């Protein structure tokens, strides 16, 4: 999966390397923005569709697409994140691609070199090194995993669901053949 493909949804925002006239710092408080590009972006109780900066700080804010070197999020929601380092504290994220991720909150899909989660709920987590106090995930993939892992679907439940699903599908096909059989 390539997170970069999400950026094709927003082709109207030039890259930070395209021009050097981006502001150094943008502070938003209780505001809305379509596209933000700066060296440092601070958002408090604000929302933005696209944010591109070297450093992004979110506090009780929302951002749909964020591309940054360093993301710090507190009680915020982010859609798609591409970062070198990301810290999510009591926040939610749909898709995260990062070098290093520290998270406490709700995550959808995560792909990172190093993932550190504490009391987090996740759909899919993939990383070379995954560690945490309590990890609850549907799918957890890692080269080295440390910590207490709670899988929503364990091996026994997956096997049982497959058997029941197969039995149900077989019975439905048999019943359909008996009822609607044409010669």
Q: Mind explaining what this structure looks like?
A:
This protein is mainly β and 183 residues long. The chain has a 6-stranded parallel beta sheet with strand order 1-2-3-4-5-6, with no helix packed on it.
Write a short abstract of this structure:
By secondary structure, the protein is mostly beta strands. It is 14% helix and 64% strand. The chain is elongated, with a radius of gyration of 21 Å.
**Share in β-strands:** over 45%
Coarse structural class: mainly beta
- Percent helix range: 10-25%
Q: Give the overall shape.
A: elongated
SSE string: EEEEEEH
Sheet with most strands: strand arrangement: 1-2-3-4-5-6
Overall mean confidence score, pLDDT: 85
What is the CA–CA distance across the termini?
48 Å
Please report the total strand number as a whole number.
6
Indicate the radius of gyration in whole angstroms: 21 Å
The profile of the biggest β sheet is: 6 strands, parallel
| Low-pLDDT regions | 1-19
Number of H/I helices: 1
Keywords:
elongated; disordered N terminus; 183 residues; 6 strands; 64% strand; six-stranded parallel beta sheet; single chain; mainly beta
List the helices and strands and how they pair.
Layout: E1 25-29, E2 32-44, E3 47-59, E4 62-74, E5 77-117, E6 120-151, H1 155-180
Parallel strand pairs: 1-2, 2-3, 3-4, 4-5, 5-6
């Amino acid at each position: 999966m390539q997170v970069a493909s999400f950026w094709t949804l927003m082709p109207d925002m030039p890259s930070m390397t395209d021009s050097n006239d981006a502001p150094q710092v943008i502070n938003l408080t209780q505001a809305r923005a379509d596209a933000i590009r700066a060296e440092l972006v601070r958002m408090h109780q604000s929302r933005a569709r696209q944010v591109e900066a070297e450093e992004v700080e979110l506090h009780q804010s929302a951002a749909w697409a964020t591309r940054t070197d360093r993301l710090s999020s507190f009680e915020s929601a982010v859609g798609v994140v591409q970062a070198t380092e990301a810290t999510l504290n009591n926040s939610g994220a749909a898709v995260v691609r990062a070098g290093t991720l520290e998270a406490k909150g709700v995550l959808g899909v995560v792909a990172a070199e190093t993932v550190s989660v504490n009391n987090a709920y996740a759909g899919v987590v993939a990383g070379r090194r995954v560690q945490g106090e309590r990890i609850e995930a549907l799918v957890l993939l890692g080269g080295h995993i440390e910590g207490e892992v709670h899988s929503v679907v364990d091996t026994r439940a997956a096997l049982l669901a497959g058997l029941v699903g197969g039995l149900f599908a077989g019975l439905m096909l048999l019943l359909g053949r008996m009822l609607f059989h044409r010669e």
